[in-house]
Design brief:
Shape: globular
Strand content: over 45%
Number of domains: 1
Strand order of the largest sheet: 3-6-8-11-12-13-14-16
Order of helices and strands: EEEEEEEEEEEEEEEEE
Number of helices: 0
Radius of gyration: 17 Å
Number of strands: 17
Structural class: mainly beta
């Protein structure tokens, strides 16, 4: 299957998944104590809206994605407040798609959820999903993406919104992809997940403070 794979999109992450976080004023002193409630606890996350990663302008879209992992309070800046142990893209009857056909993504976990700044007035934490590592297959083309993806976490809704910036994610290996997905390409990832304590409707909260 030798299509001109000029552009591809792959959805990589919490994910995990996983889970990255929100925003504080530039003048604020960065938080160093992170209180997760409940802590420690396991969580599940389900996408809200499409999850998309694009490479060179062609998007791969997943209408279904979910993740799971654990959360706990932490100290430091940056600080890992959650670990994504599993993240899936696509589901039976709802595969991830692109203009080049269906796309299969396999994540190598764990991914991390790293907190950096917190805004008390909005209950939003800013940070990123780290340790992102995913292998994407489209026909004969197989490529691997690693890096991180910036994001925010909102306590009132449990929404983890991920939107990577240019250069955060990189294609580190590529096979049978031609010039469409070369090594060194910089994919962009966007997606949002709703987080709940496993088996409940409880929305975990993350609060940053200074000792």
């Amino acid at each position: 299957m030798k299509k001109s794979l000029r552009n591809l999109a792959v959805v990589a992450g919490a994910a995990s998944a996983a889970f990255a976080l929100a925003a504080a004023p530039a003048s604020a002193v960065p938080s160093t104590v992170w209180t997760v409630n409940p802590t420690p606890s396991s969580f599940t996350a389900t996408n809200t809206g499409n999850v998309v990663l694009s490479v060179n302008g062609i998007a791969m879209t997943c209408t279904k994605s979910n993740a799971a992992g654990s959360m706990a309070s932490a100290t430091g800046n940056p600080a890992t407040v959650a670990s994504i142990s599993s993240i899936a893209f696509g589901a039976s009857g709802a595969p991830c798609t692109s203009v080049l056909g269906n796309v299969t993504t396999v994540a190598a976990t764990p991914w991390t959820v790293v907190a950096q700044d917190y805004t008390a007035g909005t209950g939003v934490t800013k940070g990123y999903v780290g340790n992102v590592d995913a292998t994407v297959t489209v026909g004969a083309c197989v490529f691997r993406v690693t890096g991180k993806a910036s994001g925010t976490y909102t306590n009132s809704t449990g929404k983890l919104a991920v939107a990577s910036t240019s250069g955060e994610l990189t294609v580190v290996s590529s096979s049978n992809c031609g010039s469409a997905v070369p090594v060194g390409a910089k994919p962009l990832f966007t997606g949002a997940y709703l987080v709940k304590k496993t088996g409940t409707t409880t929305i975990p909260t993350i609060v940053g403070s200074n000792p």
